[in-house]
């Protein structure tokens, strides 16, 4: 009850904010059109200097790479660190522009990582093989409680770092057995610039995964004082932190002069300013008090591109929002029911009417930015109400009984889930639908615990740009909760064996084609149906230029130039 | 007087214990698993969940959790939030900001409210009286967040007189939010003062003062006002405490990192230690302000004695 009252007042605030921001927007038209967009060619030669500011929300964890898996903290951490490999922001391909010279293997299982010379942390200490091995072991070690621990689950010896934990019905945990090791046996330092990684099973795209936040190196200073590090991280990236992060306020980062990478920072300083409300941030950009905001009020989205001209920046986001099905529920156990649902949803109508272009309709389980994406991956993920009804007629689905639609509350999902409900009701002739929404803290345990009584909202943001990232972590048997994110409880032997075959393939093209065959099984079995892909949107002032936001929803702060 | 104050201060101890236990119980009763919510759509390994639950005593039953908290409290440890930051630090960092905002708001509400109330009260049904009545009715009926966005838009964006948000410009940054925060109470203070003044002006002692040939300014300023202020002081004292706790909307819209916002955010994340710690601070202030108000009664009206 307390919650719903609070949510209601928030909704009221938002509604009002929309109205006001809308008035504000109209008056600023002149400003937007005169924006000078083409000063500064963005060519990385000499740094342009200057200072600028950008919007972030409050990070949820200490600023430790192994503990950071949400966007806000991620923006800070990704500006402070550079991983083994990087991803091209236009083509999304993996590039060896990070610390790794090469990552090679003969059998896709034992990988040799060779580091480049000359990389240093912000405190001057060199980035060595140990910097990676120690960091990975720390994150993987269960008692450290690091959120990104599961990224190392495929490395040999990971299980010995977890111990045995029992969870009762109320979610209480008991450590039955302490971990027997603190270091994964699969990691071995060969010399200062070389280490080997032995995986439990072959994994052909392992190098590509190592660009993710979880795999960043840590300096020795981290192990001396973890708490201080979490406030003021010492990384090896284009920016360095000369001061602590202040909750509710933010952090100012300076260019790291000895940065060894190609993408050195252009500006001298960047202030990442914490905002509690996106309307305030947006108004501040309008007034010129803040240079960049990538969290925009809903009211700004429809009219934004006209208003801001070339100071409105868009890019595809590497994510996918599906409507997932509780395959464990008898009513949804027949794949034909799920396929009928998939065909009864008009995705274009929802992305246009509700999201006004801030989402694009989805057909494939993988995001368009990843390797292996196919535009028409599945015939059932397109709107075809007639066929949907024919298919549903074949089953013994009871249309007279209302369906439940689940989503997490307070996160802006109400409108589109309701639209999906209306479409399912009208297009399939189902008597009615009930909206069931819960706070994230209640929603997630229920979802992990097979508690969904109807189709539900899920979501996945990629960790690395490969189709595998949208398949194995979500639909394989080894990813069942609580250790994994397969909350539809979909299990399919053929799917699992295709994934494992793909993981072993030494030819990248062959691997991709095997992953796609696995995706075809999702099309036949339909544990979830893709609805839409996200679009990053940001606005900036005339003071800054060359502002880009990548598929991971990170503003590439190092390439921002200050015009003034 | 000294004994009275000492007795009142001693009473804060059971009140604080009761308050913390109550808040602890409420947080405990909140449905859902805050640890699971930390990871969002991503998985969180059982070992990591166990480590976090253990660190925050979440595996213990309510009473044990509370006793462990009290034990820490006696050693000056208020616990920590989910990002590992001590609650005491959050409080010391944010309390000054909240106090500054609340005090400025109270100063605004007292100065403007009392002046408007006096002007309205000494000549009832005059133009001034009607103006105060209409404008206070207007302010009372507009929700705070409307006022906040309006102020931000008009004085921040259009005229550019004040910063739109944040604290980067020091004292100037507090003016706009303080006015918004004060607006509602200002209306109450004005109306309280008006009624009180109007009532006192009809009293015998005022007639006597007038008959003695005192100047009207002395009659109102020295005699009537002092007697009329008791209800206003009662209101303002309680209001100062509630302005500190209730500034959530204002702090959010104006992006001011105060305690109100911290409580709001930690309720969303179910960070028990943070909620209990900050609310305890609120309770403490509430008790203190009430005590100060009671003492002020004696100062304003010498007939009141506490012995």
TrEMBL record, chain A:
Cellular component GO terms, alphabetical: ATP-binding cassette (ABC) transporter complex; periplasmic space
Gene3D superfamilies in UniProt: Dipeptide-binding Protein, Domain 1, Dipeptide-binding Protein, Domain 3, Periplasmic binding protein-like II
SUPFAM superfamilies linked: Periplasmic binding protein-like II
Segments of this protein annotated with the region Disordered: 23-72
Keyword Signal: yes
Pfam families xrefs: SBP_bac_5
Keyword Repeat appears in the UniProt entry: no
Superkingdom classification of source: Bacteria
Species this protein is from: Phytoactinopolyspora halotolerans
PANTHER family in the record: ABC TRANSPORTER SUBSTRATE-BINDING PROTEIN, PERIPLASMIC BINDING COMPONENT OF ABC TRANSPORTER
Signal sequence, start to end: 1-24
GO biological process: peptide transport
Descriptive protein name: ABC transporter substrate-binding protein
GO molecular function: peptide transmembrane transporter activity
Solute-binding protein family domain residues: 98-478
Keyword field: Signal
Lineage summary: Bacteria, Bacillati, Actinomycetota, Actinomycetes, Jiangellales
UniProtKB/TrEMBL annotation, chain B:
Keywords: Cell membrane, Membrane, Transmembrane, Transmembrane helix, Transport
Gene3D superfamilies, per database record: MetI-like
UniProt subcellular location: Cell membrane
Domain of life: Bacteria
Any one GO biological process: transmembrane transport
Main subcellular location of this protein, as a coarse class: membrane
KW Membrane (keyword) present: yes
Alphabetized SUPFAM superfamilies for the sequence: MetI-like
Span of domain ABC transmembrane type-1: 95-297
Name of the protein: ABC transporter permease
Organism field: Phytoactinopolyspora halotolerans
């Amino acid at each position: 009850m307390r919650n719903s009252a609070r949510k209601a007042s928030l909704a009221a605030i938002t509604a009002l904010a929309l109205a006001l921001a809308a008035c504000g927007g109209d008056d600023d038209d002149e400003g937007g059109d005169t924006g000078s967009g083409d000063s500064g060619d963005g060519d990385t030669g000499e740094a342009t200097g200057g200072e600028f500011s950008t919007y972030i929300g409050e990070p949820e964890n200490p600023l430790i790479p192994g503990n950071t898996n949400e966007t806000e903290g991620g923006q800070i951490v990704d500006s402070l660190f550079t991983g083994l490999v990087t991803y091209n922001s236009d083509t999304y391909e993996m590039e060896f522009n990070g610390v790794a010279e090469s990552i090679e293997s003969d059998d896709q299982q034992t990988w040799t990582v060779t580091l480049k010379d000359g990389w240093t942390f912000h405190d001057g200490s060199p980035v060595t093989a140990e910097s990676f091995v120690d960091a990975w072991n720390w994150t993987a070690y269960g008692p450290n409680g690091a959120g990104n621990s599961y990224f190392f689950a495929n490395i040999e010896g990971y299980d010995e770092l977890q111990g045995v934990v029992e969870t009762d019905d109320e979610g209480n945990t008991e450590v039955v057995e302490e971990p027997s090791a603190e270091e994964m046996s699969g990691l071995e330092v060969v010399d200062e610039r070389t280490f080997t990684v032995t995986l439990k099973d072959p994994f052909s795209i392992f190098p590509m995964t190592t660009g993710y936040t979880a795999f960043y190196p840590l300096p020795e200073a981290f192990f001396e004082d973890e708490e201080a590090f979490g406030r003021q991280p010492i990384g090896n990236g284009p920016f360095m932190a000369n001061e602590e992060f202040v909750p509710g306020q933010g952090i100012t980062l300076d260019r790291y002069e000895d940065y060894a990478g190609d993408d050195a920072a252009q500006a001298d300083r960047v202030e990442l300013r914490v905002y509690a409300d996106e309307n305030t941030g947006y108004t501040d950009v309008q007034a010129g008090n803040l240079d960049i905001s990538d969290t925009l009020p809903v009211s700004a989205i429809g009219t934004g591109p006209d208003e801001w001209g070339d100071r409105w920046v868009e890019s595809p986001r590497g994510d996918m929002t599906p409507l997932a099905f509780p395959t464990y529920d008898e009513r949804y156990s027949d794949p034909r029911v799920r396929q009928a649902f998939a065909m009864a949803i008009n995705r274009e109508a929802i992305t246009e009417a509700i999201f006004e272009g801030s989402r694009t309709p989805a057909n494939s389980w993988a995001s368009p930015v990843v390797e292996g994406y196919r535009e028409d991956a599945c015939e059932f993920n397109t709107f075809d109400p007639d066929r949907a009804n024919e298919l549903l007629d074949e089953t013994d689905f009871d249309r007279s009984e209302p369906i439940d639609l689940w989503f997490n509350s307070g996160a802006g999902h109400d409108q589109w889930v309701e639209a999906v409900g209306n479409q399912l009701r009208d297009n399939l002739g189902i008597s009615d639908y009930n909206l069931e929404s819960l706070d994230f803290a209640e929603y997630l345990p229920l979802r992990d615990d097979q508690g969904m009584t109807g189709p539900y909202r899920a979501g996945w943001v990629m960790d690395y740009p490969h189709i595998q990232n949208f398949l194995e972590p979500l639909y394989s048997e080894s990813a069942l909760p609580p250790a994994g994110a397969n909350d539809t409880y979909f299990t399919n032997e053929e799917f699992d064996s295709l994934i494992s075959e793909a993981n072993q393939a030494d030819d990248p093209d062959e691997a991709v084609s095997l992953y796609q065959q696995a995706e075809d099984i999702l099309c036949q079995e339909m544990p979830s149906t893709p609805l839409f892909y996200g679009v990053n949107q940001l606005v900036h002032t005339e003071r800054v230029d060359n502002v880009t936001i990548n598929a991971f929803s990170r503003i590439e702060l190092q390439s921002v130039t200050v015009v003034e | 007087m000294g004994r009275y104050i000492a007795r009142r201060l001693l009473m804060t101890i059971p009140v604080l214990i009761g308050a913390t236990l109550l808040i602890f119980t409420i947080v405990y009763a909140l449905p859902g698993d805050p640890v699971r919510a930390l990871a969002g759509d991503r998985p969180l390994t059982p070992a990591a969940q166990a480590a976090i639950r253990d660190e925050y005593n979440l595996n213990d039953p309510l009473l044990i959790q509370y006793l462990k908290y009290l034990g820490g409290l006696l050693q000056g440890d208020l616990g920590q939030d989910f990002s590992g930051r001590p609650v005491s630090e959050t409080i010391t960092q944010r309390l000054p900001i909240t106090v500054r905002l609340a005090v400025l708001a109270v100063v605004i509400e007292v100065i403007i409210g009392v002046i408007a109330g006096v002007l309205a009260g000494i000549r009832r049904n005059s133009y001034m009286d009607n103006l105060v009545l209409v404008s206070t009715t207007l302010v009372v009926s507009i929700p705070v967040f409307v006022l906040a966005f309006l102020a931000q838009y008009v004085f921040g964006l259009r005229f550019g007189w004040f910063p739109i948000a944040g604290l980067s410009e020091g004292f100037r940054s507090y003016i706009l939010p303080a006015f918004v925060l004060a607006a509602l109470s200002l209306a109450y203070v004005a109306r309280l003062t008006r009624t009180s003044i109007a009532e006192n002006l009809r009293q015998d002692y005022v007639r006597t003062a007038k008959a003695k040939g005192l100047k009207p300014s002395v009659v109102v300023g020295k005699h009537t006002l002092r007697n009329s202020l008791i209800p206003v002081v009662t209101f303002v004292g309680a209001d100062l405490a509630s302005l500190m706790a209730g500034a959530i909307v204002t702090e959010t819209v104006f992006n001011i990192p105060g305690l109100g916002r911290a409580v709001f955010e930690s309720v969303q994340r179910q960070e028990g230690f943070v909620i209990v710690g900050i609310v305890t601070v609120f309770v403490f202030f509430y008790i203190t302000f009430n005590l100060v108000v009671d003492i002020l009664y004696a100062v304003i009206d010498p007939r009141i004695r506490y012995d």
